[in-house]
Amino acid sequence: MGDRVSNTASEKKPLIDLAAAKYRQHYIRNTALLVAGIVIALTAFSVRLTTTEYTVRSQKIAAPVRLALITDLHSCYYGEGQKTLVNAINAAKPDLVLLAGDICDDEIPNENTETLLKAIADRYPCYYVSGNHEIWSGEVEAVKEMFRSYGVKVLSGETESITVNGQTLNICGVDDPDITKYEHGSLAFSEQLSAVSAATENGNFTLLMSHRPELVIEYDKRSFDLIVSGHAHGGQWRLPFINAGLISPNQGLFPKYTSGVYQLENSELIVSRGLARESTRLPRIYNRPELVVITLESEKQWQNGKSRSASLPTP
Ligand SMILES: [Fe+2]
Fold first, then answer.
1. H or E element: which one contains 181?
2. Ligand 1 mean position, distance from CA 68 (Å)
3. Structural domain boundaries of the chain?
4. What is the pTM of this model?
5. Topology annotation, domain 49-304
């Protein structure tokens, strides 16, 4: 009798262990899947500001110059006093700040943009060109006046020469092409481009600020050394692994000019993914908003540095 009881108990024990092990297995797998899902979602939908650095080398540059490129802010909020963005700009130690369009929005009040300007315009020489949303607001002249009131230089088919660290640059700027639809009497985009491209003849490094990146046919008719743009918002959703954007205004699906450096026939083009976040109708996916920082550097010094390091013995 006692033997029978003991046998029954020993037969049941493995069944209980097996069920417990299976439960543990399921629990661990489901927890891992949940954690992975949360990590992927947090990464994919992150709108945490990032800073992207590029270096442009040119024989026309003798001393390095640092440029902070801000585009497509759409008056979005970056913390009390815009401190997240302001701290990132200050940390980059720029010599100039370029505000390349859609810094304000046609639906969102200008408050956050003004907070940013209060924090940076006294500290750095700042340049601004209009974007399509500022023009669509129907108040682009008032917007430009607001930028001027903070000491920002507004460029509408104009060029400014500035000397920084002993290095003279031509800063050219053109309005968004929509300017003629809303502001009658303004020079058309191509006329503004032609007007500013005269600056390329004086031998200085010439930078063009133009909100739209896709107008490369127009840019390639001229010889700017560097063009900086935004507008494409990185293609809104960045496709992982191939690092390309999904869709952007004026370029449609799988746009070509959304983020990074593009070698054009006569120029280099740098496109920022911009800073818009709560203003966008579609969320940004794998597409963190960015502050772009560009260092202009002497090609000769870089080549010399390269040959010096190439001739150093391998340790
Ligand atoms: Fe835009």
1. helix 179-182
2. 18
3. 1-44, 49-304
4. 0.88
5. Purple Acid Phosphatase; chain A, domain 2 (3.60.21)
